[in-house]
Amino acid sequence: MPTTKAEVLQGTLDLLVLKTLDTMGPMHGFGIALRIQQVSDDLLRLNQGSLYPALLRLEQRGWITSRWGVSENKRKAKYYSLTRSGRKQLRDEVAGWSQMAAVIDRVLKATS
Amino acid sequence: MMEFLRTLTARVVALFRRRRLDEDLDEELRSHLEMAVELNQRKGLSAEQARREALLGLGGFEQTKQIYRERRGLPMIETLLQDLRFGFRMLRRNPGFSILAILCLTLGIGANAAVFSWIEGILFRPYPLVTHQERLMALGGTARGEPGGTALSWPDFLDLRRSCTLLDSFFVTKITGTTLSIGERAEVTTGSIVSANYFDALGVHPILGRGFEPDEDVGSQAHPVTVISYQLWKGRFKGDPQIIGKTQRFSGVLHTIVGVAPEGFYGTFVGWAMNFWVPASMEETFEAGGYKLEDRGARWIEAFVRLKPGVTRGQAQQEISAVAQRLETDYPATNRGRGIQLWPLWQTPFNNARTLLPTLEIMVVVVAFVLLIACANVGNLLLVRSFARRHEMTVRLAIGAGRGRLLQQLLTEGLILSAFGAAGGLLVAYWCRHALVLLFPARGGVTMYLPGEIDWRVLALSAGICLIATLIVGLVPAFQTRNLDLSGTLKAESSGVVGARGRAWSRSSLVVLQVSLCFILLVGAGLLIQSLEKIRTTSPGFTTHTVLNTGVSLVAAAYDAQRAKTFEDELIDRIHALPGVESAAWARLEPLGYGSYSSSPIAVDGYELPPEEQPSVEYNQVGPAYFATMGIPLVSGREFRRADDEKAALVAVVNQTMAVRYWRGQSPLGQRLQVKGKWVQVVGVAADSKYESMRENPKPFFYVPLRQDFARGGGLNIRTTQPLRTIEREVVREVRALDRNLALYEMITLQEQVDRSTSPQQVAVTLVGVLCGLALLLAAIGLYGVMSYAVSQSTRELGLRMALGAGASNLLRLVMSRGLALTAGGVFLGAAVALGLTRLLGNLLFKVSPRDPLAFGSALLVMMIVASTACLLPAWRATRTDPARALRD
C-alpha cells in the first residue's frame, strides 16, 4: 500500500462525480466528496473545493442538473443529479477509461 | 459542438445573473462547511478544530469561490465591464476634462465622417435609389490629342450596346432644360433626355404610371411622353393623383405624363436634381441641331453602363476599345481618331463629380490632419491626468495588477472617450450632409443636390477611425506608465519650465506634432487662397461688372430659325431703347459657361500646315456690337455689323493669339480663312480673353457673325449702368410684349459668371479654411494646456527665481520663449513636410508655386500669433507666482 495519498488525476474527477451520482442518485456536493473519499478508502486526496468548479463544468455541459433541496439533517443543500446525456457520457467515459487502463496495463507488463 | 454552445450560453447567461449566482454559491459552500463541521464534531473534534479541518478540506473558501467564478462567466468580458464601469467613473469625476476630450474627438472624427459621407454620397454612390452602383461606370468618347472626355453619338452608342457582352444595362442620359409654364407661372427647369431603358436599367420604379417603353427612343419626335420627378409632382402639380395621362407643354410640344419617379430619386447628374425625363426620340425638341439619332457625327449623349458581375473595368474597356476600333475603320469620316472610354463613377467626366473630385481628395488629407491634431490634444489631456493618477497606477501595480491589465484599463478609457467622440462625430456628419450645396452659388432654374450619404460603409470607416483614435489616445499615457517606477512613487518630482526634462518630453513632442500639422494646413490654405485671388484678379478680357447676361428660351418655345431671327432683332431694338442701356448683343455662347463652342478645321492662306497637323479652332457665333457690349478691345479692324448677314460676304474676327500663330505677325485683315470648308474674310482682330475657364492659357479663337452661322436661343449680353433688377424687370416686360409664352433665363452679371466658374476653387478654399481654423483652435488648446501645466508644476522653481531677483518680465519671457520654442520646432518640422506635400494640391493651384514663400511666410505669422496668444495666459500666471508661498508649500 502506497504511503502517500494519490492526487485525483486531471480529468478523472468528472468521471468520479458522474459515477457517484449514477450509483447514489441525487446528491449534494458534500455528499459527493464524502462518497468519493469513502469508496476510495481515503486513498484519494480530494481537494473538496475543486469539486465545485467541476460540478459547474458538468452542469454547463448539460450532463448534470441541480436544484435546491433539504438534506437528511434538515439543512438546505443543492442536489445534483445525472441527466440522460450525462448517463451516456458516463458510459462513454467508463468505456474509454477501461480501454485506457487496459492499454497502460499491457504496456507496463510488456516493458517489465 | 453542442456542448461548446451549451457551455457558452450558460456562461453568457451567468454574466447577467452574477449577484444571484454569487449568493447561490455562498449558500452552497456554507452548507458544505456546516455539514463537514457537523461530521467532524461527531468524530469527536472540538468545535474550533472541526471548523478548521472542514476549511482545510475545502481548500479555502475564497479561493474556491474565485476559481468557481472564473469557470462560471466570461472573465475577459467581466474585466472589460469592470474597466468600463471604472472608466465611466473616472470620466464622471472629471467632467471638464471629459467634455473637452470628447469635444476634440467629436470634431476630429466628425470632420472625417462628414468628408467620407460626402465622398460616398457624391463620388461613390451618387445616385439615390439606383441599384448596384458599385458596378456602374460612366461611358464617354475620347478624341485623339484632346484631354478629357467627349460626348458620344447615338449610332455609336447603339453599336456598342449590340456588340458588348461583358456589360449590361447601357443607358443614355443627356442633361437639358425647358421652360415650364403651369398656370400663370413660367420657370426654367432641368431634366434629362434618356434612352428608353433608363428606369429599368437603374432599377428605379415610378410610383405612379410607368417608365418608358422599349420603342420610345426610336424615331423623330415620335413619342412625346415624360416621367416627372416626385418634387415636380408634389410642387407644381400639387400631388395630383390623376396626373397620369395628363399633358404638359415642354418646349412647345405637348408631352403626356406617363409616370412619376419615386421620392428621393434625383436622376443621374451629380450635383443637380432633375425634374423630368423624356425619351431620346424627343431630342430635337430640347436640343439645337435637329434630328441626331441617325447622325454618327453628332456627339451629344452621355452614357452609363453596368459591368456584369465579376467583370473588371480593364476587361470591359478592352472589349469597348475593340468595338471603337472597328467603328473607326467602318466609319472613317466621323470616327477617325475617336475612342470610347469607361470611367469609374467618381471620375465621371461630364458632371460635378469631376469638379469636386480634386477638392474632396485634398479634404481626405486635411481631415486626417485634423483628426491627428485632435488625438494629440486628447492624448495630452490624458497624459496630464496620468501624472495625477500615477499614485493610483503604482498602487495597482504594487498589489499585483499586470502591466497588461493597466494597459487594458487605459485603452478602455480611451475607447469610452472615442466612442462618445464617434457618436458625436456622426451627428456632426449628419448635420453637415447637405452643407456642401451651401458653398455653391445659387443658380437659377437648377436645384443643387449634393448629399452626404451615411451608409454602413461610412459607419464602418468611422468605427475604424474611432479605434485608431482609441489606440492613439490610449497608448500615449500607457507609454508613460511603462516606466512607472514602484519605489520612486513617493519621490516628489517637479519639472522645470526651462528644463522640460523627462515626462514633459512626450507632452512637448505632441505639441510639436500638432503645431507642425497645423502649419502644413495653414500653408495649404494660404496657397489655395492665393490661387483663388490670382484667378479672381486675372482679367477675363471682358467687362464683368456692367455687363449682364441672360437668354430667351427660343428652342424651348419651338421657334424656327426665321421666327427666331426676327424676334432677336426686335428684342435688341427694344432693349437699346431702354434707359441706361449702352449696347446689347446676342451670342451663341456666353464665356465660361457649360456649353461647348463650335469648332472647325481651318486653313489659312499662306500658312503651310505641318504634315499630320489638322488645326481645329473653336469659335463663337456673335451678333452685331458684341465686342463693344462685352468690352473686348479690338486691336485692329472692325466689329460685326447688322449688315453682316446671310446675304453679305462671309467674315470673321480672329483673336490675337490666332493672328500671331497663323499670320506670323502680319496683319490678317483682309486675309482669307477657311471655316468648315468655306472661305471667309478676316475683318478684325480682337484682344485675347478667357473662353472656357479662367485658368486657361491664351489660345487661338475666332468669331463669326451669328447671322452667318445661325443658332436659335443664344445668350443675350447687355451693357448697362442700371442695376440688374431694374434691367431684368424691363427686359422681362419687353420679352412678354413680343411673346407671352417666352421665359427669360436667369439674368446675372458676367462677374457672377466668373464667380460660378471658379466655384470649385471657392469651395476648396472655404472647406480648407474652416478646417484650418478648427485645427488652429485645437493646436492652441494643446499649446495652452502644455504651458499652463508646465507653469503649475514649476511654481517652486518660479518662486525661487523670483526670490533670487527675477522680475515679472523675466518670468514672462521665460515662459513665452519656452512656448514659442515648441512652436518654432513644430513650424520647422511642418515646413519641411509641407515642402513635399503641397504638390498634392496640383490642379487646384493657379499661377502659384507649391513652395510659394508668401504662403509659408503668412502661415508662420499666423502660427506665431496664435501660439503667443495661447502662451500669454500661462505666462501671465507665472508672473503672479507668490515667491513666499511657492517656497513654503
Note the main attributes of this structure.
heterodimer; A: 112 residues; alpha+beta; three-stranded antiparallel β-sheet; two-stranded parallel ribbon; 4 helices; 5 strands; 18% strand; globular; B: 889 residues; eleven-stranded mixed β-sheet; six-stranded mixed barrel; 28 helices; 52% helix; elongated
Itemize the secondary structure elements and their pairings:
The complex is a heterodimer of chains A (112) and B (889).
Chain A: E1 6-7, H1 12-24, E2 27-28, H2 29-39, E3 44-45, H3 48-60, E4 64-70, E5 76-82, H4 84-111
Parallel strand pairs in A: 1-3
Antiparallel strand pairs in A: 2-5, 4-5
Chain B: H1 2-16, H2 18-42, H3 47-58, H4 61-72, H5 75-93, H6 95-124, E1 136-143, E2 146-150, H7 154-163, E3 167-182, E4 185-194, H8 198-202, E5 208-209, E6 225-228, H9 230-235, E7 247-250, E8 253-260, E9 271-273, E10 276-279, H10 283-286, E11 302-307, H11 313-330, H12 332-335, E12 338-344, H13 352-388, H14 390-398, H15 403-431, H16 435-439, E13 447-449, H17 456-482, H18 504-537, E14 547-551, H19 561-576, E15 581-587, E16 598-604, E17 616-622, H20 626-630, E18 634-637, E19 651-655, H21 656-663, E20 672-675, E21 678-686, E22 701-705, E23 715-720, H22 724-738, E24 748-749, H23 750-757, H24 759-793, H25 795-803, H26 808-837, H27 853-879, H28 883-888
Parallel strand pairs in B: 4-10, 6-8, 17-22, 19-21
Antiparallel strand pairs in B: 1-2, 1-11, 1-12, 3-4, 3-11, 5-8, 6-10, 7-8, 9-13, 14-23, 14-24, 15-23, 16-17, 16-20, 18-21, 19-22, 20-21
